[in-house]
Write a structure and sequence with these properties.
This protein is α+β, with helices and mostly antiparallel strands and 753 residues long. It has 13 helices and 44 strands. The strands form eleven sheets. The protein has an eight-stranded mixed β-sheet with strand order 37-38-40-39-41-42-43-44, sandwiched between helices. The protein is globular and about 75 Å long.
């Protein structure tokens, strides 16, 4: 997935421990805010301090606000736990949803986390099924976008005993308790292990794991990135079997990046399958925990296994497979109690373009039905699928379900987020499993994201709109407000103090459809004057930029540009989300073509506005947005006078095969689609000022893309500007990096637009 979230949360969130009305919470907020920004200084600001600066955004992080993190719902659905500092140590405290102001119960005192003479500082934790044991991660080290390594420790609440998971094999990853709480499975050096907590013995389920060759129980780089999938093993409900994927990367070609840290650069090599190249050969195995013996499951012909999951009540396993084109999805039902472990396809779905994979493989209590969201009727909707092949559509309409949030089977109610009011808006709804009694639960228009507790009794909602800071609130499942947990009062004051201008939404004519867009005008806007226009774009599948939600650092940076006299805009062209599958999939086999046509058409329309200086229209984008910026500056050279492309794809042949082939098929099948829409093949059209920016340690969109673009620009004798951040990945952050990056982009814009 190309999208890079630039709204990083650099400061720890404030953790609520009492209701909004209580003096305790107000005191905590005041204390924490004082640590970041002295209240007296804030209140005594003069007019000069109302100016927005890059440093305030990306060095002091003043405009990101606070959020409520760390909720872990307990099994009863009435309580939750959080990490709380007690006497300087991270402790796990349990609170009641119904009595938020009460003093919590200590489930684990941080001072008891002492091992080998040192107090541990855990990063995260999880409980076993009966919540008597806690699995703690310590010293977590990030690997790729989602994966990490860590040291794991086991804490027994009944005995108060703390022990390392496996001192001999460390660090590990993806540790999890068995359903009976008697065992823990984990990955170490590409092998799957199980520790028996009663005997302390460790059993290797696999022994052939090898770096850049064989992976067991977790996924390769491209599965992690494109299927959002890392934990590739599953316990059976009775804890007697464990299913896992085995990746054979032998034939996958390697990619090498250089890190510039020491006297001699260090090479980092990993497997990265580019478009049209060999994938890992992925197989499904089921092992008997008692003896560790594994059996390979026959799934017929397939290319990918993007999900596996056991039934909720039976030792039956579901495995999903996809073909190489990703337009034929199959659900396989496997009886692991049968010695032969037969596999049967019980449901399948086809599409002329591609079929989406979701995370909604939720088995209902009967173990015979599961949830899926599908676009098979032209919009994304919720279906209940039976293992007998039956399919019941629950939601209907000319709008898209954004996310299935859960189901309360006791009252047969499904909860989901949808874009029924338009692509920029996300609202929470409920509906009965038979499709009746649909109700809108969200009270405020904008963007709502509800996270439900176990049992679906309560949810924590994050709401914001384009011009209002995030508000976190606790609700009963029917929407009844229990407590405002965080209202971001301080951020709201800062926005007012810095004179943020409203972001407003509109429709603009594209090449074929009217398109969603937003605009921010400069302070004291005068329609008799002419202003330059700065487009910020993404435009790719899977991510919209025209969303009615607070946009953190990006929003603050766009306010800075507005203060400098720019009109700032964004638009979602064809190929973007939540306007039905036909709109989204209209770019199939020719990524970049229709999106560029839409951008050019919108820019031409904007150029006709009397208050726009048509000679000063610029564009900036990151990742897929960098790709679109590069196409706009070449194919749209007569319109766009300045472009800043950050970490751009410049030829889809250089990107990974799961993402690229989903939309383009392989280069051998669709050479024209690849080449006609590569900015590398249009560099001779470039006229304006063009800045390329990339991190040399980008494992996602390789710096090769920028290097190949440079070659083409040089061959065409074109002037351009370039900046490379050594060792930085796709996010280009860390230390002073973001501050430097945005200062550089600001200065480039002021000079050239």
């Amino acid at each position: 997935m190309l999208y890079i979230n630039s709204k990083f949360k650099f400061k720890k969130s404030y953790i609520f421990v009492a209701p909004k009305s209580s003096p305790m919470k107000k005191t905590l907020l005041l204390l924490l805010f004082t640590l970041i920004y002295p209240i007296s200084a804030f209140l005594q600001q003069d007019e000069s301090t109302s100016e927005i600066t890059v440093e305030k955004i990306w060095k002091k992080y003043e405009f990101f606000g606070s959020r409520v993190d760390g909720f872990r719902s307990m099994k009863d659905g009435n309580h939750f736990t959080q990490f709380i500092l007690v006497d300087g140590h991270k402790s796990i405290i349990q609170y009641s949803f119904e009595n938020m102001g009460s003093k919590g119960e200590t489930l684990l005192n941080g001072k008891d986390l002492k091992y080998d003479g040192k107090i541990l500082n855990p990063d995260s934790y999880s409980f076993n099924d009966d919540e008597t044991k806690i699995l703690l991660t310590v010293n977590r080290v990030k690997r790729y976008r989602r994966s990490y390594f860590a040291e794991y420790f086991l804490f027994d609440r009944e005995t108060n005993e703390l022990q390392p998971l496996d001192e001999e094999r460390t660090p590990q990853t993806l540790a999890s308790y068995s359903p009976d709480g008697k065992k823990v499975a984990y990955i170490y050096r590409n092998n799957l292990y199980i520790k028996n907590l009663e005997s302390g013995k460790v059993k290797a389920i696999t022994d052939d794991g090898e770096d850049n060759k064989i992976i067991n129980g977790t996924t390769d780089w491209v599965y992690e990135e494109e299927f959002a999938y890392t934990k590739a093993y599953e316990w059976s409900p009775n804890s007697e079997h464990i299913a896992y994927l085995r990746f054979d990367e032998t034939n996958v070609k390697e990619f090498t990046m250089m890190y510039y840290r020491d006297l001699y650069p260090e090479a980092y090599t990993f497997k990265y399958p580019k478009a049209g190249e060999d994938n890992s050969k992925v197989s499904l195995y089921v092992a008997k925990v008692k003896n560790g013996k594994s059996k390979k499951i026959d799934l017929g012909a397939y290319e990918y296994i993007p999900r596996i999951k056991y039934s909720s009540v039976e030792n039956k396993l579901m495995a999903l497979t996809l073909n190489r084109h990703q337009n034929h999805l199959k659900y396989h039902w496997i009886n692991v109690e049968d010695r032969k472990m037969p596999s049967k396809v019980i449901y399948e779905e086809k599409d002329k373009a591609y079929v989406e994979i979701d995370d909604n493989l939720y088995f209902m209590k009967d173990g015979k039905r599961f949830i899926r969201t599908s676009e098979k009727d032209g919009h994304n909707h919720i279906y209940i699928i039976g293992i007998d092949g039956t399919s019941q559509q629950v939601t209907t309409g000319s709008w898209d379900v954004v996310e299935f949030k859960g189901i309360n089977e006791d009252n047969e109610t499904i909860y989901y987020i949808s874009a029924e009011e338009g692509a920029p808006y996300k609202m929470l709804y409920s509906i009965k499993t038979d499709g009746t009694n649909k109700m809108k639960i969200s009270a405020n228009r904008g963007t709502n994201d509800a996270n439900f507790t176990s049992g679906m009794k309560y949810y924590v909602n994050r709401w914001s709109d384009a011009n209002n800071a995030p508000l976190f609130s606790l609700h009963k499942a029917d929407g009844t407000l229990i407590e405002v947990l965080e209202d971001n009062e301080i951020l709201t004051m800062l926005m007012k103090k810095h004179k943020f201008q409203p972001k407003t939404f509109m429709k603009l004519p594209g090449a074929e459809y009217d398109l969603n867009a937003w605009i921010i005008k400069p302070p004291n806007f005068d329609s008799t004057k002419q202003y330059p226009v700065y487009f910020n774009v993404y435009c790719g599948p899977g991510k919209n930029t025209v969303e009615d939600q607070y946009d953190g650092g990006n929003f603050a940076y766009h306010q800075l540009l507005a203060q400098k006299g720019y009109i700032v805009m964004s638009v979602d062209p064809r190929g973007t989300m939540y306007r039905g599958s036909a709109f989204k999939k209209s770019t199939y086999l020719e990524l970049g073509k229709k999106e560029t046509e839409d951008l050019i058409e919108v820019a031409k329309h904007v150029a006709q506005w009397s208050f726009v200086d048509k000679e000063r229209i610029g564009i900036m984008g990151w990742s897929y947005g960098g790709y679109m910026t590069s196409l706009a500056m070449t194919k749209g050279a007569d319109i766009f006078k300045m472009g800043i492309a950050v970490a751009p794809v410049t030829n889809w042949r250089y990107y990974d095969n799961i993402y690229t082939e989903r939309f383009m098929r392989t280069p051998n099948e669709n050479a024209d689609g690849y080449d006609n829409n590569s900015p590398i093949n249009h560099v001779e059209k470039l006229k304006g000022k063009y800045l390329l920016i990339h991190g040399s340690g980008d494992d996602n969109v390789h710096v090769q893309n920028t290097m190949e673009m440079i070659d083409a620009l040089v061959a065409a004798d074109k002037d351009f500007d370039l900046f490379v951040y050594p060792n930085k990945n796709h996010g280009i952050y860390g230390g002073n990096t973001r501050n430097h990056l945005f200062n550089m982009m600001l200065n480039y814009t002021l000079k050239n637009l």
